[in-house]
Amino acid sequence: GLNSPFEIAKLEKTLTEKGRDNKLTLVEMEGETIALSNLGAYDIDSFFGIVPPPASTILAVGNIIPTVLPQNGKAVVRKMVTLTLAVDNRVINEFYAAKFLSCITEQLSNPDKLTKEL
């Protein structure tokens, strides 16, 4: 299974390339449960995605913004992003949606863990 955002990103890149070349198999096109929408690339800071059928979830990713934050009594600049998760409550309850979003936040807050997999 896919255990990290790195593995998911790698698979997403492969499937996107196959899709652009019209080489996706039926199995690769079935079973979508989550959609990803990145309007940050268009300088949109945050937005609410609408879950597209047949997905049950959409993760909306906003623009990455340099933000001044306090750290050990000093001001430091950190990259911040707004993630918004919308789910179909008939399929996924809020508890699991919150857990999923917390997991993504944890992974992004600790990039050293992600780069070890590279």
UniProtKB/TrEMBL annotation:
Q: Which GO terms describe its cellular component?
A: pyruvate dehydrogenase complex
The Gene Ontology terms for molecular function here are: acyltransferase activity
Q: Which GO terms describe its biological process?
A: pyruvate decarboxylation to acetyl-CoA
Task: Check the record and name the Pfam families matching this protein.
Answer: 2-oxoacid_dh (PF00198)
Query: Where in this chain does the record put each 2-oxoacid dehydrogenase acyltransferase catalytic domain?
Result: 5-114
The record, for InterPro entries, names: 2-oxoacid_DH_actylTfrase (IPR001078), CAT-like_dom_sf (IPR023213), E2/Pdx1 (IPR045257)
Q: What is this protein called?
A: 2-oxoacid dehydrogenase acyltransferase catalytic domain-containing protein
